[in-house]
From TrEMBL:
This is MRH domain-containing protein. Keywords: Disulfide bond, Membrane, Signal, Transmembrane, Transmembrane helix, Transport. The keyword Zinc does not apply. GO terms for cellular component: endosome membrane; Golgi membrane; trans-Golgi network. InterPro entries: Man6P_isomerase_rcpt-bd_dom_sf (IPR009011), MRH_dom (IPR044865). It comes from Patella caerulea.
Amino acid sequence: MFRIYGLLLTVGCTLATDGPVRWLDNSCVIETSQGTINLTPLGNTDNTPRFKDVSSTSDQYRYSWNPCLPFNEGTCSNVAVCQSVPDTQSFYMLGVQDNISYQDGTDQSGTIMYHTFGDIERITTIRLTCDPTQEGNLIVTGEQPAQSGKYFFELRSRYACFQEPTTTFLPPTPGAVTASMSPSPNPDIYNVKSIVLLLFTIQISLIILIVMLIIGLTTRRQSTVPEKDTEKSHFAYNSIN
Ligand SMILES: *[C@@H]1O[C@H](CO)[C@@H](O)[C@H](O)[C@H]1NC(C)=O
């Protein structure tokens, strides 16, 4: 009930051009229509946050986040996101790994959202930006607007990149999201890749062959032309004599 309300709130607050918001069973491996995002390698496994006490660009608080697995910090226990106030040493839970939703962006990106349903509803939106050059960099914008309970982060990481969807040959229907849940995508993708590579090689070989044929034909023609010319000139020479 609270979940549905929170979801509707989120849908209403985001741009209509973005994809639908849907709840995730898993905050580690996120299956999307654009591919799979696997945040597992980025998460600490020792109950500490991977990104700890990151300063915000818009408020005076610090924010910690651990992708995939829960962590403890101060009075935040088993959380996914924790806000701390440096002056008072107080901590506020902003999300747990279980209550997470996902939304496709319009520009080859996606966002995850952590929801809390207590006396105060909070939503932490983390934009996942694919950056193959970075292991993991968290930019914290903080609470916007102030007192809204809406927090914004951006993760720039190679683990925020979409891996190839498992359903390569299925049309992109809404149902394909569920179909792409099947594990071990690698064998199929390798097969498709090698077939494409093979076809490409054959095509290149054909082009080279045709080019060689054309060159061969034109040089033969060119070499026969002077022969005829010399014959003609011989003839002309002979006829003059
Ligand atoms: C997560 O969702 C469940 C079920 O909707 C809810 O009971 C629980 O309070 C939520 N957790 C937080 C931290 O809001």
